[in-house]
């Protein structure tokens, strides 16, 4: 079975936004689902998909991107203060 095109696009958008860590198991499984669909997942992969990837996909992308930008900005500020 092939992946759902809308789900594949959402996964691509989440990956492009950097909401899944590069090189992580989560991103590997998300990419697999984007290409092959969910039915090909092993039970272990399904557990990762349901516990770590689906929660990211379920939240509005724009809010997650904005929250991530605020977190990064706060981290940069705190890093600068620590260096001063």
**N-end to C-end Cα span:** 56 Å
Approximate shape = elongated
Give the overall average pLDDT: 89
Characterize the biggest β-sheet. none
The helix content, as a percent range, equals over 70%
Beta-strand portion reads under 5%
How would you describe this protein?
The chain is an all-alpha fold. Helix content is 75%, strand content 0%. Helix 1 runs antiparallel to helix 2. The longest helix is centred in the C-terminal third of the chain and has 23 residues, at 61-83. The mean pLDDT is 89.
SSE map:
Elements: H1 5-16, H2 25-36, H3 43-58, H4 61-83
Helix pairs in contact: 1-2, 2-3
Give a nutshell description of this structure:
Helix content is 75%, strand content 0%. It is an all-alpha fold and 84 residues long.
List keywords for this structure.
75% helix, 4 helices, 84 residues, mainly alpha
């Amino acid at each position: 079975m092939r992946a759902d095109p809308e789900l594949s696009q959402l996964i691509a958008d989440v990956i492009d936004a950097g909401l899944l860590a590069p090189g992580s198991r989560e991103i590997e499984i998300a990419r697999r689902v984007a290409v092959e669909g969910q039915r090909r997942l092993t039970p272990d992969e399904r557990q990762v998909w349901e516990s770590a990837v689906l929660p990211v996909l379920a939240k509005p992308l724009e809010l997650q991107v904005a929250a991530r930008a605020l977190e990064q900005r706060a981290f940069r500020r705190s890093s600068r203060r620590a260096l001063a």
